[in-house]
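STRUCTURE:
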């Protein structure tokens, strides 16, 4: 994308602090130290002349009216439609990403939309909810908050589909306006989060996600959890059962979605075996009330 197309909206950025000529982003555990002219790991939060900038504010990479079950949410407004908007960039680098063309790249097609246009679109399509989804929405927290506030003012529900990799301080702000969330718990290994999903990030993304999930529950947000089961990454029975134990330790009523992977981006392992997923789901149902299988 040509920088001349950047959003003209002068929205003060949040969680970006100045450190001399550098900018420190305190939105997520990566705590990126950004040089002038550069961007953080997410590719969208940057530094211009020692000042924090969010030039992708209002840039929408995808807009669709989906069944809410596609998020996936099976226990929040079932059978309804939801206006889903996607963004660009992500603060993780999952080599198996199924939406890599928008999450790992900012030079993509899209359009600029004000928050009011999003709300109007939802109302015109008779959608009772708005989902912030597809790529990681929370690296655009300023725009998401503006949309969420306006959505609540018009009686619409807010749904986050997120990797949960933001600090508790930021999470508390956004979850106050969140009605439901589907959180990707990608594995149950701090090492995998650090070495494979974060490409050596110094931040503890794994614990941050666990804390985000607990905070969702504590703040009364309807929460469902998704794990993409990726061969040679997180598909051991021990690791998957550990996830089930973690969820059950919070509340056995929290739904867990076990989703089949297919080869994409940089990961070429064969697709997840449907029979294996059914076996894991069968065992998990001894601990959890709701276990769903997807993409099979």
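SEQUENCE:
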């Amino acid at each position: 994308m040509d920088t001349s197309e950047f959003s003209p909206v002068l929205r003060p950025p949040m969680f970006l602090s100045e450190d001399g000529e550098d900018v420190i982003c305190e939105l997520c555990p990566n705590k990126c130290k950004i040089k002038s002219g550069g961007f953080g790991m997410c590719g969208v939060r940057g530094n211009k002349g020692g000042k924090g900038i969010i030039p992708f504010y209002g840039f929408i990479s995808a807009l669709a009216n989906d069944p809410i079950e596609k998020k996936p949410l099976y226990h929040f407004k079932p059978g309804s439609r939801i206006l889903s908007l996607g963004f660009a960039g992500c603060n993780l680098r999952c080599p198996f990403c199924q939406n890599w063309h928008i999450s790992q790249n900012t030079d993509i097609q899209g359009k600029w939309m004000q928050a009011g246009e999003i709300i109007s679109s939802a109302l015109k399509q008779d959608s009772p909810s708005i989902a912030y989804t597809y790529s990681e929405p929370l690296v655009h927290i300023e725009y998401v908050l503006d949309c969420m506030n306006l959505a609540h003012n018009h009686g619409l529900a807010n749904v986050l589909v997120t990797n949960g990799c933001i600090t508790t301080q930021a999470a508390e702000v956004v979850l106050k306006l969140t009605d439901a969330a589907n959180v990707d718990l990608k594995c149950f290994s701090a090492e995998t989060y650090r070495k494979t999903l974060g490409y050596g990030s110094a931040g503890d993304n794994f614990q941050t996600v666990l804390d985000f999930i607990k905070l969702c529950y504590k703040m009364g947000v309807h929460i469902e959890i998704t794990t993409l089961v990726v061969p040679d990454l997180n598909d051991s029975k021990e690791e998957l059962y550990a996830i089930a134990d973690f969820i059950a330790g919070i509340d056995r009523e929290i739904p867990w979605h076990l989703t089949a992977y297919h080869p994409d981006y940089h990961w070429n392992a064969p697709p997840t075996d449907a029979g294996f997923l059914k076996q894991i789901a069968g065992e998990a149902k001894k601990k959890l009330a709701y276990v769903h299988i997807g993409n099979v």
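REMARK: The radius of gyration is 19 Å.
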